[in-house]
Write a structure and sequence with these properties.
Elements (H helix, E strand, L loop, with lengths): L1 H31 L10 H11 L13 H8 L2
Length: 76
C-alpha cells in the first residue's frame, strides 16, 4: 500500500514539474517570436510572461510579424 501512495505522489510531482516547465517554455518561446502589429501593445501578455518566466521581453529580438516578409518582397 505504501508503494502505491509513493508511486501516486511521484506521478503527481512529475506531472506538476512537466506543467511548470512546459508553461515556462511556451512563454519563453512566445516572448521571442515575431508579433503581429495588433498585439504589439498587449500589456497583459507581457505581465503574465514576465511573472511566469522571470524575464522581460527583449524588443530587439521580437520584431513585427510581417516586417521581414515586406523587406524580402521589396528586394526581388
Amino acid at each position: 500500500m505504501i508503494y502505491l501512495i509513493a508511486l501516486a505522489g511521484l506521478f503527481i510531482a512529475g506531472w506538476a514539474a512537466a506543467a511548470v516547465i512546459g508553461t515556462m517554455a511556451y512563454f519563453r518561446g512566445e516572448q521571442s517570436k515575431p508579433i503581429h502589429q495588433r498585439n504589439w501593445d498587449n500589456d497583459s501578455f507581457e505581465q503574465i510572461a514576465q511573472s511566469v518566466t522571470g524575464a522581460e521581453i527583449d524588443y530587439n529580438e521580437r520584431v513585427p510579424a510581417y516586417a521581414l516578409d515586406a523587406y524580402a518582397s521589396n528586394t526581388f
